[in-house]
Amino acid sequence: MNGFTYEFILRLLVASVMGGVIGLERGYRAKEAGFRTHFLVALGSAIFMILSQYGFEELLTMSRESGLNIRLDPSRIAAQVVSGIGFIGAGTIIFQKHVVRGLTTAAGLWVTSAIGMTCGAGMYALAIASTVMVLICLETLNLLLQKFGTRNINITFSAPSTDEVRDILNRMKEDGMTVDSYNMRETIESGKPNYYVSVEVNVKRKRYEGHLLDIMDELNGVRIESIE
To answer: Is the model's pTM score more than 0.70?
Structure first.
């Protein structure tokens, strides 16, 4: 292998490491795209960038020697990477229960692709600096959301009477939770009525863990079916 080949392999390695680091952070946060996805996006982007820059040199050399005037735009393949990464990013965006999820992960994949292309172009310092800024942004955003942010949670529980259902909803409101919507249906189990309630609430992130379970435990006969 010549010197160019070793240089290309180095670019691919740096791109893989940068993408993998971002992917580890996303995977640690249990997001839609983790280590493998970011690793492959960065690696693939770097390969396309190298191919775009150097993949057609032999053809150009042959054309010059034969007197042909062949012109190639080295940016065309790289431009298609920018468009193509949108399809992968769209796959991480989920619209669920009137809430859009995965936008940050999709943006992270987009930036990871740009970092991979930067490594493919041999601009290591820029790629490393960009990766550091991405991690700082993601971690800072996570800390701010944990402290000040809110999230929508869908809770499904069962209660033996409408009084318990009313008490739970009132307790949620007293604790600062916003009840966006709820749906209740009555069933007969062992000759007794039982009420299944699905409620969507907006609650502060730092309070919801375990807090909802404490509310449910205070009322007899209430059973949580699911929390999403």
So the answer is: no
